[in-house]
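User: Can you predict the 3D structure for this chain?
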Amino acid sequence: MKKSAGATSSNLTETEPQDTELARAAAMDFNLLVPLLAVIEEQSVTRAAQRVGLSQPAMSHALRRIRRMLKDDILIRRGNESLLTPRAKELLGPLKHLVRQSTTLVHEATFEPGTSHREITLALSTSTALVAGSDVCRVISERAPNCTLRMITTANPSDSLFTQDNVDAILLPEAFTTGHPRERLYDDRWVVISGSSALTNENALELLATLSHVIFDAPRISRPYQALHEHGVEYSVRTRINDNLLIPTWFRGGI
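Assistant: Here is the predicted structure, written as structure tokens:
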């Protein structure tokens, strides 16, 4: 009997192999994800509370729990501003996608393009607007006839557009990295534009190295100029301009 009891006791202490990923998920409070997303998007405890229907004390309490869970401040005060921490900025894309997917999983999708009256906000560069803007307008007009399209042009597409301008999607070159889900819309190609009548396909590379350049003045070097650097092509810049749609007007003098 004692041996049997001992065996029984031994069996009770045995545990099944633990699924580490599920165990970590079980230790999380998923109720904090929605307040977290609201705080990141609004960059304000007060506005986040109003958005999700919580009192400000309740949202402040949720933020304290979020900070303990993530071991990060998420939102910090600097003077009169509330700023996101680098960790909060990293979380925005994956978190927004997770919350939307979770909502779809539990509830039926609520966005019906044919009947929705919402405002759709897109951010894109002026050059992208020139290339694809009319097609975007046409598609939305056909598939979401009651929606309003709002376009924001930007020279520096970043995740801050989602929080500061309430952007739904960003049309950006593949050279820009993002944590958000993305899809290729079209293929682009590079061409050489010159005011010189001597430009041909055969001497384009030579002219790139000899004639002065007018370039788009952006926070980062554009991919064509990265390629010139990679291939050791020397060039000189005469003019920088922050609106790429104006660049062609600078070639009338034969630059």
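Residues 1-14 have pLDDT under 50 and may be disordered. The first helix runs from residue 2 to 13.
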